[in-house]
Amino acid sequence: DAGVIQSPRHEVTEMGQEVTLRCKPISGHNSLFWYRQTMMRGLELLIYFNNNVPIDDSGMPEDRFSAKMPNASFSTLKIQPSEPRDSAVYFCASSLAGRLTEAFFGQGTRLTVV
Amino acid sequence: GQQVMQIPQYQHVQEGEDFTTYCNSSTTLSNIQWYKQRPGGHPVFLIQLVKSGEVKKQKRLTFQFGEAKKNSSLHITATQTTDVGTYFCAGSIRLSSGSARQLTFGSGTQLTVLP
Question: Nearest residue of A to residue B40 by CA position?
C-alpha cells in the first residue's frame, strides 16, 4: 500500500496566484481530512469529507479556500488568491471510518507564498 | 470553542529519563488519539483511547484516559534518542448540533532526548 499521496511536496508561489494541492487517499478509506500546520497555530483541521461529501468545513479559514472530492480516490484543496499568511505545511489524511478511527497522514505539501 | 490544551510545550530529557505529556479538554471527549511527528515528517498514529479510565501500553509507552474523559497522558519510560519528535493528542467531541464530531489537536509537546 502506497499510503496517502500528496502532490506537490513543495510549492512556492507569488501572492495572488491560485494554488491547488492534491491528495490521493488510501484505497478503501471513506474519510478524508485536510490539515494545515504552522508554528503559530499548530495543526488545524480545515475540512473533513466522508464518502466524498464535506461533513465539517468549519476550519476553512475563509472563502479563498475551497476543497473538493470528486471521487473516492482524489481530493483537492485550492487557495485563490493566495496570500503570504497561507504559508504552511498542508497535510491530507484518510481513515477507514471517520474521526473515531486511525488517520493516516500524507507527507504534506510545504507551501510558501511570497 | 473547543480546545485541547497540551503541556508542556517543550521537554528536554537525558537519555534514559522518563517523559510525560498531558492533555486537558474543557469538554468531555468521545475519544482521544495520540500521534508522533518526527522533525520534518508527518504525524503518525500511535493509539486511540475510548473508555473512561482506560490504560494502554506499547512497550515503553503508557497511555491513560481520565475517568471523566477530559484528560489524557502519554508516559515514556527510559527515553531513547529514537523517541525524539513532537507528540500530539487529538480529541473528538460531539458538536452541539449532535451531527458530527470535531477532531481537535493539542499544540503538541516537542521532546528532545540528549544522548
Answer: A107
Instruction: Say whether residue A108 is in contact with chain B using an 8 A CB cutoff.
Output: yes
The list of chain A residues with pLDDT below 50 reads none
Residue A1 C-alpha, separation from nearest chain B C-alpha, in angstroms: 16
B98-111 per-position pLDDT tens digit: 655 667 889 999 99
Give the three-class secondary structure for A33: strand
Among B100, B97, B79, smallest CA distance to B36 is for: B79
B42: Cβ–Cβ under 8 A, 6 or more apart, which residues? A91, A105, A106, A107, A108
Task: Round to whole Å and give the CA distance between B108 and B113.
Answer: 16
Residue positions counted in chain B = 115
Q: Is B98 left (phi over 0), alpha (psi -120 to 50) or beta?
A: left
